[in-house]
TrEMBL record:
Keyword Heme: no
Occurrences of domain Core-binding (CB) (ranges): 9-102
Annotated ranges, domain Tyr recombinase: 123-216
Name the record gives this protein: Phage integrase N-terminal SAM-like domain-containing protein
Domain of life: Bacteria
Organism listed in the record: Amycolatopsis echigonensis
């Protein structure tokens, strides 16, 4: 492919190559999907607005208009405004995409994100359940059936370790062959999880949680 042919490729035509690049960097499948979705959303917007679709022609002006559109667009599921954190995440995914176009593919001379400001995300700490609320939550799992024991184990681990739901869903009993998933290790009373960036970390158990038969 000649240099001219590369420059004439529409932005969506680079997505497959970027997917390969992200996989080569050992990014998690969920991260790859989120990054590709961000590019797909931008492509749909540019197409709907009859804006430039060739990679070198998409500049800061087009991107700023897109982020303004996101600020005004409702969440299709709830009808509420898109959250600041969601818009910031879209920004960072697209910034990574253009960095790849610039550094790896050398498609653009200068990323349009150069000197652009990251969308502000207000400090909004999550709501924390009080002790009485946690007790009520655990009370919903009373019983000896599989579902009750499973739900209680899940809640106890989340309360004790603070792992992400995605990390929790991949946990298995300690097994060297399952290190890519994360595991319980009752010999040393820790949960080993594979976090963001596929970084492994240990989250210790409270002794009372370890002794709970439903956790084992």
């Amino acid at each position: 492919m000649t240099a001219v042919e590369v420059l004439e490729r529409r932005i969506r035509e680079f997505v497959s190559d970027w997917r390969t690049h992200l996989r080569a960097k050992n990014r998690a499948d969920s991260t790859i999907d989120a990054c590709l979705d961000s590019v797909a959303m931008l492509v749909n917007y540019l197409d709907d607005e009859n804006m430039p679709m060739l990679a070198p022609e998409i500049g800061r002006r087009e991107l700023e208009r897109y982020f303004e559109y996101l600020r005004q667009r409702p969440n299709f599921r709830t009808g509420e405004s898109l959250s600041h954190s969601y818009i910031s995440k879209q920004y960072r995914h697209l910034q990574q995409f253009w960095r790849w176009l610039d550094d790896v593919e050398e498609i653009v001379e200068l990323s349009p994100f150069y000197k652009m400001e990251v969308p502000h995300v207000p400090d909004n700490p999550p709501t924390v359940l009080r002790e009485n609320e946690l007790k009520k939550l655990l009370a919903t799992t009373k019983g000896k059936g599989f579902a009750e024991l499973r739900d209680r184990a899940i809640i106890l681990v989340l309360i004790d370790c603070g792992v992400r739901v995605g990390e929790l869903s991949l946990l298995t009993v300690a097994n060297p062959a399952e290190q890519e998933r994360g595991s319980f290790d009752f010999d040393v009373d820790v949960v080993r999880v594979l976090g963001k960036g596929r970084r492994a970390c240990d989250a210790p158990f409270n002794p009372a949680t370890v002794e709970a038969p439903e956790v084992r």
